[in-house]
Amino acid sequence: MRYATVTLTWKTGSIHPLDELFANIDDVSIESIRYVSPIRDGEYIELLTFRGDPDRVRKRLADSSHALEYGVSGDEGGQRGVAYVTCRNVGLVADLLAILRDHDIVLDWPIRYQDGTAHGVRGLELTVIGTGDGIQQATATLPEEITLEVQRLGEYDLSPRRFDAGLTERQQEVFDVANRLGYYEIPRETTQAEVAATLDIATGTVGEHLRHIEVKFASAHAHNGSSR
After folding, report:
1. Looking at the whole model, is its pTM more than 0.70?
2. What angle do CA 81, 171, 9 make, to 5 degrees?
3. Among 35, 183, 178, CA closest to 112
4. Which of 101, 123, 156, 216 sits 20 to 30 Å CA-CA off 143?
5. Which CATH code is given to the segment(s) 2-11+92-155?
6. What is the pLDDT of residues 34-49, one digit of tens each?
7. 155 class by beta-carbon count within 10 Å (0-12 exposed, 13-18 middle, 19+ buried)
8. What is the rounded CA–CA span in Å between residue 35 and residue 152?
């Protein structure tokens, strides 16, 4: 069983109608697509995480022809939240999900939005799991609008790092960025300051998150080892 973590970018327009809905609001953006599932012909339910004012998100969804029903909740500071939306369509995301189904490939949720990709535009980072042939065939059938860049590729295993460490959503986000930039490579290919700049948070905050992450990984590894 193989996995591939890839970044998808697109030349024009948006890959998702709701992404386009928030594209021109400076202080609101979709961070990740936690889940998407078809429910009726041309209709989907999905769970999104966003950064920004929940009230502005509600107003945009209320004005959108794509959002049929929705629910929005935010954190106490009003700067991050979750939206549950019933949509008329999910654009190219639906095409991607259909390609994965056609080739018996599992999507490892969530799909995360990435800023500042190698192409200088916003992209989606996702991990897929399947046979090597299936993954290769799926990448060959991507829509012309999408460019794919492979970040990581290899044998898939149920490591404590991915499943048993019990990271919070924010810790997972910091870990994913640090891992993608090469923080855990030997020698290291990035610094905590560069990770912080990518996430637009303080370097000290990144350092604190990474310390908690490493403690949780060590604890999960020790627990798994003692149960064998």
Report:
1. no
2. 70
3. 35
4. 156
5. 3.30.70.260
6. 888 888 777 899 999 8
7. exposed
8. 22
